């Protein structure tokens, strides 16, 4: 019976193949010819060195490439295993997101399209739960060539992400500082929020009060709360922070600032019931733009990073294997509501 060692050694007859290429292609040929199959344990690094006579770095580099393609996986304390018998794919990516809302969907759609059909993506969701985040990381570690992760602002996050190889990690959406150099394509919340509020200050002051909806302990970026409080002080604007919008409580002369789409829909419904005109009787400011906000209420004023661009940028970094450290600009889009 032909062994994996023999499949690798067969390729020595091809002069153009380096030892690394022999190793990788030998494994691929062995899988294609059903010599080894999905789930099967593979020889250890020491065994391969002994049987093939290859240098340790050559064997380790070969396994790293097979892992990056999603063909082989490394299990802690157990060794290497065949993870996938689809040897045509060039890369396997783990995408760990908050959840699927309209903004994350924009990111995913453009990320997926930019990567193309030969890259396999497994999508996971942590829902902003640190226990789930930790469980997901433990589950995917060592099984993918690239880890694209939207981190949770939590004291444990840095330690958890530091356990991944920096050169295989791309952070997106929110930023968390880690050890050493790492890749990221994120948005910025504090300075951009302050600048937006400052730009809108004259319009906001035409109203009696600005109300910001924020639930303490929620996933709302704390940087936005800090920026709102600084704006309140610097511009002497009459403001309040309350937990959530109570249906039926809309009042003339108020500006409502929310990060939650469902609150916008409730406010608009109540405006219609009370015959209040959006942009004149009340104002609305929303974070994160989407198509529906162009249409409802005569257009909702928003400020947002471009999640479509973020998805494309991350995908390009995955494909080109180039260093990227970029903050996607935040843009104010003024519409009828403010």
TrEMBL record:
Residues 17-85 form the HTH gntR-type domain. It holds the Pfam family GntR. Gene3D superfamilies: 3.40.50.2300, Winged helix-like DNA-binding domain superfamily/Winged helix DNA-binding domain. The keyword Ubl conjugation does not apply. PROSITE patterns: HTH_GNTR. Transmembrane segments: none annotated. GO terms for molecular function: DNA binding; DNA-binding transcription factor activity. Keywords: DNA-binding, Transcription, Transcription regulation. The keyword Metal-binding does not apply. PANTHER family: GNTR-FAMILY TRANSCRIPTIONAL REGULATOR, HTH-TYPE TRANSCRIPTIONAL REPRESSOR YTRA. This is GntR family transcriptional regulator. The lineage of its organism: Bacteria, Pseudomonadati, Bacteroidota, Sphingobacteriia, Sphingobacteriales.
């Amino acid at each position: 019976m032909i062994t994996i060692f023999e499949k690798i050694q067969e390729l020595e007859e091809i002069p153009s193949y380096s030892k690394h290429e022999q190793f990788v292609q030998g494994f691929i040929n062995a899988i294609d010819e059903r010599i080894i199959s999905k789930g099967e344990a593979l020889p250890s690094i020491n065994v391969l060195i002994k049987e093939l006579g290859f240098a340790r770095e050559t064997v380790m580099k070969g396994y790293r490439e097979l892992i990056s393609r999603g063909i082989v996986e490394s299990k802690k304390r157990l060794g290497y295993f065949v993870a996938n018998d689809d040897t045509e794919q060039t890369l396997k990516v783990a995408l760990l997101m908050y959840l699927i809302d309209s903004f994350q969907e924009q990111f995913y759609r453009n990320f997926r399209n930019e990567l193309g059909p030969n890259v396999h993506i497994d999508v996971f969701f942590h829902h902003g739960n640190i226990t789930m985040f930790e469980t997901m990381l433990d589950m995917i570690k060592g099984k993918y060539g690239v880890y694209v992760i939207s981190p949770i602002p939590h004291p444990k996050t840095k330690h958890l992400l530091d356990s991944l190889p920096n050169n295989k990690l791309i952070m997106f959406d929110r930023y968390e500082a880690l050890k050493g150099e790492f890749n990221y394509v994120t948005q910025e919340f504090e300075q951009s929020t302050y600048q937006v509020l400052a730009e809108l200050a004259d319009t906001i002051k035409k109203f009696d009060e600005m109300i910001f909806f924020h639930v303490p302990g929620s996933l709302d970026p704390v940087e936005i709360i800090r920026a709102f409080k600084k704006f309140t002080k610097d511009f002497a604007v009459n403001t309040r922070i309350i937990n959530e919008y109570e249906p039926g409580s809309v009042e003339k002369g108020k500006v409502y600032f929310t990060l939650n789409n469902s609150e916008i829909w409730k406010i608009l419904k109540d405006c219609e019931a009370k015959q209040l005109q959006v942009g004149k009787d009340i104002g609305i400011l929303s974070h994160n733009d989407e198509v529906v906000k162009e249409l409802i209420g005569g257009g909702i004023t928003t400020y947002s990073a471009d999640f479509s661009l973020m998805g494309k940028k991350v995908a390009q970094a995955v494909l080109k294997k180039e260093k990227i450290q970029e903050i996607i600009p935040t843009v104010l889009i003024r519409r009828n509501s403010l």
